[in-house]
């Protein structure tokens, strides 16, 4: 199989005999190797920016922060701008006192 990548996105996957690489394309022979998509960790509580590159090094290209703090939103912006190496982030908001009260009342009505 041949995988064509433009920028940082996979744009085509075809049988090798069906692909004609564009002139000047960089070709990588990955025979005998594996190619996997980026992995998302869907339950993260992360507080240290200095360790964010470890996610990328281990194939985790996206995370869902389970409790969002202001620094998480800052990291997401810096990652998007290429200033910080780390995974894409889906960030949950930090519950405030009012949210907990509403959820508590809803839970009591369900019982």
Question: Please, could you describe this protein's structure?
Answer:
The relative contact order is 0.12. The chain has a 3-stranded parallel sheet with strand order 3-4-5. Strands 1-2 form a two-stranded antiparallel sheet. It is α/β, with parallel strands linked by helices and 111 residues long. It is built from 3 helices and 5 strands; from the N terminus they run βββαβαβα. It has helices at 52-57, 70-80, 97-110, and strands at residues 2-6, 9-14, 39-44, 60-65, 88-91. The N and C termini lie far apart (55 Å). It has one domain: Translation Initiation Factor IF3 (2-Layer Sandwich), CATH 3.30.110.
What's the helix and strand layout?
Layout: E1 2-6, E2 9-14, E3 39-44, H1 52-57, E4 60-65, H2 70-80, E5 88-91, H3 97-110
Parallel strand pairs: 3-4, 4-5
Antiparallel strand pairs: 1-2
Q: Brief description of this entry?
A:
By secondary structure, the chain is an alpha/beta fold. The chain has one domain (2-110): Amidohydrolase (Translation Initiation Factor IF3, 2-Layer Sandwich), CATH 3.30.110.90. The protein has three helices and five strands; from the N terminus they run βββαβαβα.
């Amino acid at each position: 199989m041949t995988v064509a990548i433009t920028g940082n996105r996979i744009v085509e996957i075809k049988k090798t005999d069906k692909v004609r690489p564009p002139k000047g394309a960089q070709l990588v022979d990955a025979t005998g190797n594996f190619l996997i998509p980026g992995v998302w960790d869907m339950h993260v509580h992360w507080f240290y920016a200095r360790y964010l590159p470890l996610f990328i090094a281990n194939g985790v290209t996206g995370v869902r922060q389970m409790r969002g703090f202001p620094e998480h939103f800052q990291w997401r912006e810096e990652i998007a701008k290429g200033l910080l190496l780390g995974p894409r982030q889906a960030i949950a908001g930090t519950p405030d006192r009012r949210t907990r009260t509403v959820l508590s009342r809803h839970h009591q009505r369900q019982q």
